[in-house]
Amino acid sequence: MKNGGEPRVLKRLLDPIIRCLSPEGARTLMEMRADPVAQARIDELAEKCNEGRLSPEERSEYETYVHVGNLIAILQAKARVRFKQQPAS
Q1: Separation between Cα atoms, residue 69 and residue 66, nearest integer Å
Q2: Is the distance from CB of 75 to CB of 17 less than 8 angstroms?
Q3: How far apart (Å, rounded) are the C-alpha atoms in residues 82 and 19?
């Protein structure tokens, strides 16, 4: 997006989700990791990507993992900020 529109869009769409989280929900989100099977596939695709050996289907799959991973990372960062702002239970 031009002119930094993407960060505004993400903020507008993701902030309401984060505001719905309880402290426990925020902690759960912050600790979330890919399951072992998914992580193994991500690692396999990353290696093939680095070696320039991805098929078009694998590239699409890998890009999906990367995009979703980035979105989860943004949500986790927002949850960390929200969790720090809330009094300890």
Answers
A1: 5
A2: yes
A3: 8
DSSP per position, the chain: -GGGHHHHHHHHHHHHHHHT--HHHHHHHHH----HHHHHHHHHHHHHHHTT---HHHHHHHHHHHHHHHHHHHHHHHHHHHHHHSPP-
The model's pLDDT over 12-53, given as tens digits with 9 standing for 90+, comes to 999 999 999 999 999 999 999 999 999 999 999 999 999 999
Average pLDDT, the chain: 90
Q: For residues 60 and 79, give the distance between their C-alpha atoms in angstroms, rounded to a whole number.
A: 28
